[in-house]
Amino acid sequence: MHKKPLTSGLPLWEETEDRKVNSELADIVQSVSEAARSAEEMAELSKMVQKASEDLSSVSLTELRSDRFADAEKVSMKALSSATKQLSARLLASKGSQQQALKKLQTRLSSISKDIVSGREVLAKRAKLVEGKELLESEEKRLKSLEEAMASAQAVASLEEVTSGVLDDEKVEELSSVLDNARESLKVSAHVAARRRSTADGPLKAALQSLGERTAKAQSQLNAMLAASKAQRGRIQSAVKMREVKAKAELVEQLLDKVNETELPFLKGMEILPADEVAETVGAAEQAAEELEGAIVDARQFQASAAVDLKASLSADALKSFMKDVTEQSARVNAAAAQLLQFRKAHVARKKAAQRYEAESKVSELEKAVAELEDEAAGLLEGDLPEEELSLRSGEASAKVKSVQDAVAAARQLVFKCQRDGIEDFAAKLKDLQVRISQSNVTLGKAGKTIAGIELKFTAQRTRVEAVKALAEMEEQVERAQAACKPLLEDDAVAVLVDQYQQNVACALWKQMLEKGLGPERLFVEAGAKGGRLDADSLVNFLQAQATPTTKERRASLVARYATEEVSKGKGELVALRSKMQPKRARHRDEMMPRFKFLSTRAMPLLTQMPQEEEHGFDETLREWALMERVTLKFYAESEQDAEETTATPEADHDSVANGEGQTLQQEAASLDSNKKTKREFEVEARFLLSSPAFRSFVRHCQNKTIYLPDDDPDEFEMVLKFMTHARELPEIDPEKLVMLYGWYDKYEIRPLKPYLEKFILQTQIRRKADWDVLLTAHSLDMTDAVEDQVQMFLANEITAATVSYNSDHFNYLYQFVGVCGGSLDLAAFKKLLRRRFAVEHTAPLRSKGTTSQASPGDVFEAYTKVEGAEEVEGCLWPAGISGFLPVVHQGSKCLRQLTGLDAFWHWGDQEGRFSWRRWPRRCYRQQDLCCGCRCMLAERVVQESAESVRASAAKLEEKVKDFPASAKTSTDEVKAEVAKLLPKRQVPVAALSLLQKQMAMAKKNFAKVEAGVWGRGPC
């Protein structure tokens, strides 16, 4: 087979040198190649432009408008400039064979440059071609419109028909309209084409010449048609114009009749018309005259323009006949104009007479009103009337005085207008009217002074009563503020500090319950309760035997009880759950045994639905669960023995599972399960536990340990639940699972369950009676304010439903809820409370011992003082301020929580002096349960509100005294002096409240010091 030689035929050294030069000049070659490509693009576009220059129809307007031309020119100039710069710079530094190669590239680049320059010259013609192409298209469109118009004219009537004069009026009107449109199109088209034809060249000039010939042909046809139809079109146009001339003359005559109608009231006599109607008639006449004048001007202008428009369209005889008719119509318009001139001359005199009449009428009415008011003032001054009637009539008379004063001003203004218009024959009468107005004004002043004196007497008396009332209200505000601060200022606030000490004792009891593993019921019995009741002496003796929180360390431990716990236990401590308890009691064993028998039977099918761990396989997970269930079953089956004897051997368990004994254990456990209800409950619990990967991990780490579930020690079980709260995916909680969690919390007080329950409460919609368990759990776990608000709303809806229609189920569930919330009342008392009428207004009546008082929203102190110690109270403690039922009353301090309608239940819960183990102070519930800081805040709030009210009342009182006029009767002066003596008393409440504010500031500082001692426990 023949093989191609590997060399180019040149000597080796020359071939190597060529390759080296080509490699060094690759970038230059690339730039020159780009310039060559752009030159080719320019050449292609130049051919298109050259072709259009020779024949415009060969290239479309869209192609000529393309952006390719501008882009190609820009790209070519850029590529040429770049290649030239690179080549020039390389030539200066080159030599030998490289220089020779560069000179060859330079020659090629010069040729490319010439091509680009010539292409740009050709492309410069493109703008004129585009403009010419656009002109041809527009002229073609106009000429086509002209030709269509002429075709329409031919369709209406041919030239022969028009020349013969046999067309009817309808066809002549249509033909005239068509010819007018064609004439306008012809003017524009011919003018533009002639202007461009003089400057065009080449194919554009030929195309425009062709259009000119077509235009001339259409113009000749149009001129022939216009000449033939001139007489007929003139006849029709003159008839149309004449109709419009007559219509305008008729409108002038109609408006003249309207002007004559406005003249009738003046001919009858103005004495029979009221003054207001006279002015209205004068205005209507002037408006009608203006409308008539406008119509006359319009008619005359149209007559003149009609003669000019028809002069070229009509023959001499026809034009003469038309002008004769126009002259007749003009005579009608001129006659109306003459009558309008006479009307205006007469109207000037009537207008002056109307002004005289109106002025006399106004003065007469004024004198009559002043005389009536003078008589009324004399009757008030001399008559023996009761004070109530006298006060009422004097007030009405004062209002009349003001209206008559306005009438005096209006009369004077009208008389001045008559003088300004220069009514010479009325000058003497005007002076008389001015005298009469002045006399009426003097009489009005005397009557007004008498009425003002009587009115001022009653005003002064009312001011005195209001001043005394204002001072009394100011004193009440001071007493209210002093009552609010009294517990905090008297006897060193011993009662307040004792209340707070009792709360600390309750906290300590709860701490002891947790430390000793006691339940609330057991603590209640150990405190000395007998027959379900705990008397005061037994409780005192029990408290004296306990350690009281009187040290700093003790208080710190109490605060830690309510602080948020952080998970800080290490991995080793979490997985090393050691046995610290004795075997379970028989009761707890009987309760827990069915649960783990079911876990044994359900573990295998549940695990098949779970995701697998990355580091462990499916079989190993089964082995771990089988191990846990085996050890658990053995523990409960042998609970009669000691803890050491019930410990399972991990190695033996591994061997047993490996030999298949796990399935046998499940079959044995399944035979023990016969309760279907228990099986359903434990199915929910098993699914919930197994859905947590963290809990599975916990079991895997504990596979070599003996599993003991907790009994009375909540710490170990709390560890298990902490694993669940840190799972990668939280399982969804439905009401059934929530009830299960509530059972765990109720037995072990497990706080890590709180995030689960909060999330469920905020997302769920409670609609069923069974969902009350959700509310019980939410309140028991001490939820956030958002959760409590939702619970309050649902509780309000349920109470409303229970109040409207009695339902025993409603009452039972509500009573259960209140019991968990802390009430200790019995069911009968609670039903009695629910049947009461709850207020939904902005203020609610509170009835206690036969008296009724109003409680406003937000006034915490006042509401508490009204119901404290009452035997019988009706109404809601916190009335609705916005909407709904049992609303939230917001306070201004971060320390004090939101007080809600549940505070009412807390108040009723301790009416009989019983100790309720659930009434431990997690938050401020009642006025007695508030800490010192909160009570100071409430008292300061009352003092601040009282101070603001007192200052406002004092300012109003001072303004009332200043409003007394300087000129008053002796009796009024005495009242004024008496009220002035009351003014200094307004400073007494202000000074008292200022002193009270200073005392509260000092008390606050003292409480801050006390909180560091044995009494305090910090904010609520």
From TrEMBL:
It comes from the Eukaryota. Signal peptide: none annotated. InterPro entries: SKP1/BTB/POZ_sf (IPR011333). Keywords: Coiled coil. Residues 639-658 are annotated as: Disordered. Residues 129-156, 242-295, 356-383, 464-491 form a coiled coil. This is BTB domain-containing protein. It comes from Symbiodinium microadriaticum (Dinoflagellate).
